[in-house]
Design goal:
The complex is a heterodimer. By secondary structure, chain A is an alpha/beta fold. Chain A contains eleven helices and 18 strands. The chains are: A alpha/beta, B mainly beta.
Amino acid sequence: MASVVSGHPAALWRNPHPRRTYDVVIVGAGGHGLATAYYLARNHGISNIAVLERGWLAGGNMARNTAIIRSNYLWDESAALYEHALKLWEGLSEELDYDIQFSQRGVLNLAHSLQDVRDSVRRVEANRLQGVDAEWLDPAQVKEFCPVINVSEEVRYPVLGATLQRRAGIARHDHVAWAYARAADALGVDLIQNCEVTGITERGGRVTGVETDRGPISAGRVALAAAGHSSVLAGMAGLRLPIQSHPLQALVSELLEPIHPCVVMSNAVHVYVSQAHKGELVMGAGVDQYNSYGQRGGFHVIQQQMAAALELFPAFARARVLRTWGGVVDVSPDASPIVGLTPVDGLYLNCGWGTGGFKATPGAGWVYAHTIANDRPHPLNEPYSLERFTTGALIDEHGAAAVAH
Amino acid sequence: MLLIPCPWCGDRDEVEFHYGGQAHIAHPPAPGALNDDAWADYLFMRDNPEGWFAERWQHSAGCRRWFNVLRHTVTHEVHGSYLPGETGPVIAS
């Protein structure tokens, strides 16, 4: 580790006024947008880039996720993409010269029924064939790995075992954003906050730039990286997407002594729990069922998630909730992202990551930058085209996505 | 939690309902005649507005009937409900 940068994040990058023209405009300064800008500059020598952000940098889902990182998906296309991201995570603090607090503490995905067990063992075997580290643990081994968990048979949904990915874990989400922002800025990228895109301009089927509330900006290439607002932006270019925006809520407890050593996820009782570096328990649940852009959801979803958490972790019953919040996630029909070209020349799409975009941040930036620089997908995101909804070549990851939607 | 007006049972809590997404997506009269683009459009492409949205709900823990609701996706304000097959109210944006 070369250095740990302290101080206010605003001092880590310039805050330039937008120029009238750029080679590439990226819409959205979240993790994916910032990583894309960084890899465009680093890997492809394109640094005449503006990243436009209508709010503040990394203030959307990048500030609202539960920071879980893993690559143990089922299908080969997914394992390849997420494992590529995980390998980048493993070197990211060094690469960006900034401590992102990546902690490979292991992720358990619990099984609570015989079907869960079959599906989980199948996924472990698939992961091993894909070169992704994966183990199957019986209940006693689960208890050994995570002593705070309740593996009693006397509960409604007993723990019948779990998959374990030891290389999986968590990172400090703000640091990830700031590290990419600082590195991209140093390579000449303009990070422009408080600049909302209000239109996308085209001529003859080719993108020519964007309209913003700070004036028009022309660009040969425009790359969307706006998560929950992707449908709204794509609509400005006349595109209709197979995306629905839903609230996804999470919460933290007050600060506690270290009690929970890993990450625990459960599809069946539906909660995922880790303990952040500072000591708060971080928990997330499934999406609220209705479409929303409101960055908030119903309290009954929080109650259900806490009930699930208490069945798994009775010791948490006396912990107090410090804060709950919601983000807007872009859910696709097959729980897999859309990364690639669009029918408009020079307009690129990175969306549909739904509830799982944070873990992909470096990998998504890497392949999206390649797509933008070469006007064709990287082999890793080739299967993730918008056309797959027409060809039928879906990548169904509802099982391994781990968040109900 | 949303308070949802079931046309038959009145206002009830959201937890009694299941969501059905965008309203007024008609099943194609001749599915076999559709090309792949049209079929993808019917199956997967959906409006996802930031604003008023006509959507389907089912009163699954009540009368179990489907109906439509006009709701705002930012404020969550519910303008009202109407029956399947009816045309929804129009709100000036």
